[in-house]
Design brief:
This protein is α+β, with helices and mostly antiparallel strands and 452 residues long. Helices cover 31% and strands 24% of the residues. The chain is built from 14 helices and 21 strands. The strands form five sheets. The protein has an eight-stranded antiparallel β-sheet with strand order 17-14-16-15-19-20-18-21, with helices on both faces. Strand 1 and strand 2 form a beta hairpin.
Length: 452
């Protein structure tokens, strides 16, 4: 399928795997890329026989160690085919290793689209589901609610299918399962007819942004909304987008390149370099960046609106807090950064998301504000992010499974109402903890209190 060279993990000549953000690396004892389900079964059988644990890795776009596989690393890059397209039902069935950009291209050939997306599409569909990847908009579903069927390979090599129509515990657990229940080998996606979006970009003050976050009816009037808070300055970059039947009306290809590559990527990279060398210049740099965002309204295809390529190497933090706690949580994040006087010239994004039904989705059971932060390499944000984490957790916030946090099973268990049900199901499906790792032990606890 398509090129995968950008925005993912790297593997060195000695077999060391390093994730996109360069935060974590590992040299697995065994690396495999099965070409079919029979090969995948043999991988599991051999791992069990050798007393090794198995983790599946996708694009490596998680910012933490959730996908790190010290023992057997399984890549599904050869299990990435489109298995079926039903244009009448607007459904596609793909293998678990298919990347979002590949699926999006196949959808486009049939006049279809994802109902919602984030701003990056290099992830595998299995990885995007397993970590709870989402977009923005109070009525716009995360990937977990855009699928209608999953097929899992369990620890014993058998496969089991679960569907939205049948529902049940496995359906609600497996859609966001951190790879701990089984390997997602196929996914059926409910697409929608291809659509355009009218996107409006503007700059508002922090208080205007906080007032908006405190007004759910106004938030709900926008199909999609994003707010970028800049440390040390009052300006907030805001974008909104609505479905429209209007034709595409956007800058030229050169204009798009200048906006997305020069202003955003080269601009942020240059700001980061200057900020680290001359921290006192950060407020001025951020004000200059905000000033460069001109009020603008454009119409484009949905993917061009959602996907603003960010090539700058960065790390990321995100917590989903109850919508009513959005303003206080953003204030706490800004205070943690600004109080530490960090050379932080990088936007911190807040998105809005509906309640989800997958048990371990960060927005399970409640509309939420997803409060995020990103930072370029070379800035020690651990203490600041830990302080912001404490405030988010105090508000009932749950971390994005693929981004920075330091919570373990003891803290996480109190944040998810169906945590014990997930643990019980995991114990039945994978009693020996085959799909474990040090990260999974820390996040979910070892199955039955022990590991292989």
């Amino acid at each position: 399928m398509g090129s995968r060279r950008a925005l993912g993990a790297e593997v060195s000549s000695d077999g060391t795997w390093t994730n996109f953000s360069r935060r974590v690396s590992v040299r697995p004892r065994r690396t495999v890329a099965p070409a079919d389900l029979d090969e995948l079964r043999r991988v599991l059988e051999e791992a069990v026989a050798d007393g090794l644990r198995v983790r599946v890795v996708g694009a490596g776009h998680s910012y933490n160690d959730v996908a790190v596989a010290p023992e057997v690393q399984v890549s599904l890059d050869r299990l990435d085919r489109v298995l079926d397209v039903d244009p009448a039902a607007a459904q596609l069935t793909v293998q678990g290793g298919a990347r979002l950009f590949e699926i999006r291209a196949e959808m486009a050939r049939h006049g279809l689209a994802f109902a919602n997306m984030g701003d990056i599409d290099r992830q595998s569909i299995g990885g995007a589901l397993s970590t709870g990847t989402h977009g923005t908009g109070l009525r716009m579903p995360a990937f977990a609610s855009q699928v209608v069927a999953l097929e899992l390979m369990l620890a014993d090599g058998s496969t089991v299918r679960c569907t939205a129509d049948e529902g049940g515990d496995l359906w609600d657990a497996a859609r966001v399962g951190l790879g701990a229940l089984g390997i997602i080998v196929s996914v059926t996606i409910q697409a929608v007819p291809a659509y355009n979006l009218r996107r409006s970009d503007s700059v508002v003050t922090r208080e205007q942004a906080f007032a908006l976050l405190a007004d759910p009816p106004t938030l709900d009037r926008h199909d999609h909304i994003g707010l970028y808070f800049m440390p040390y300055i009052d300006q907030v970059l805001m974008w909104t987008a609505e479905r429209t039947s209007d034709p595409v009306d956007k800058p030229s290809a050169l204009g798009e390149w200048f906006r997305d590559v020069v202003k955003v990527n080269y601009g942020l990279e240059a700001m980061g370099t200057v900020a680290r060398r001359a921290p006192r210049l950060v407020p001025a740099l951020s004000r200059a960046f905000a000033k460069g965002i001109k009020p603008e309204t454009t119409v484009d295809t949905y993917d061009k609106v959602f996907l603003r390529p960010l090539f700058v190497r960065h790390d990321a933090w995100e917590f989903a807090v109850p919508l009513g706690s959005a303003g206080d949580s953003v204030r706490a994040l800004m205070a943690s950064i600004e109080g530490s006087r960090l050379p932080y010239a990088f936007p911190c994004e807040t998105r809005i998301a509906p309640a989800e039904t997958a048990w371990l989705h960060p927005t399970y059971g409640r509309p939420s504000a997803c409060i995020g932060a990103a930072i370029y390499p070379g800035v020690d944000v651990e203490d600041a992010w830990a302080e912001a984490q404490r405030a988010a957790v105090a508000a009932g916030g749950r971390p994005h499974w693929g981004k920075w946090h330091t919570l373990g099973a003891a803290e996480l268990s109190g944040l998810y109402p169906r945590w014990d049900d997930f643990a019980e199901l995991r114990g039945r499906l994978d009693p020996s903890g085959l799909f474990g790792s040090p990260a999974i032990d820390r996040l979910l606890g070892p199955v039955g209190g022990s590991t292989l």
